């Protein structure tokens, strides 16, 4: 896997993935940024959310479950001093689909957290990561 980050000006940069996609990142105004893009640490948190959401939806579909909604809300705390690493991350899934049960969703979340989600397992080396979910009829 390869990636490239190009500096544009001040704290503005463009990240390019090896698969050919690009994203604008920027710093906060109090650090010279213009708020023109996502912050790099926000990007890392989104990466965790995307990784684990992909796993959970995939596991449910492989279990022959019909998933009509699978969203992930994340909340993170960071250390107050440099390096301001994540210290706590909470991952909340919102899942729905006909005939889904708590047992099957719980299993998918657990498998993602403990076996499949590379981002979660990596960030879990420095941060306490907790998970929960809500199952919405539909």
Structure commentary:
By secondary structure, this protein is α+β, with helices and mostly antiparallel strands. It folds into two domains: 1-38, Single Sheet (N-terminal domain of TfIIb), CATH 2.20.25; 40-136, 2-Layer Sandwich (GMP Synthetase, Chain A, domain 3), CATH 3.30.300.20. Helices cover 32% and strands 34% of the residues. The protein has three helices and six strands; from the N terminus they run βββαββααβ. It has helices at 40-62, 102-116, 118-123; strands at residues 3-9, 12-17, 22-25, 69-78, 86-96, 128-136. A three-stranded antiparallel beta sheet has the order 1-2-3, with no helix packed on it. Strands 4-5-6 form a three-stranded mixed beta sheet, covered by helices on one side. It starts with a strand and ends with a strand. The mean pLDDT is 96. This is Peroxiredoxin. It comes from Solemya velesiana gill symbiont. InterPro entries: KH_dom-like_a/b, OsmC/Ohr_fam, OsmC/Ohrsf. It holds the Pfam family OsmC.
Quickly list its features.
3-stranded antiparallel beta sheet; alpha+beta; 138 residues; N-terminal domain of TfIIb; GMP Synthetase, Chain A, domain 3; 34% strand; 32% helix
Summarize the structure.
With 138 residues, the chain is an alpha+beta fold. The protein has helices spanning 40-62, 102-116, 118-123, and strands at 3-9, 12-17, 22-25, 69-78, 86-96, 128-136.
How does the SSE layout of this entry go?
Elements: E1 3-9, E2 12-17, E3 22-25, H1 40-62, E4 69-78, E5 86-96, H2 102-116, H3 118-123, E6 128-136
Parallel strand pairs: 5-6
Antiparallel strand pairs: 1-2, 2-3, 4-5
Helix pairs in contact: 1-2
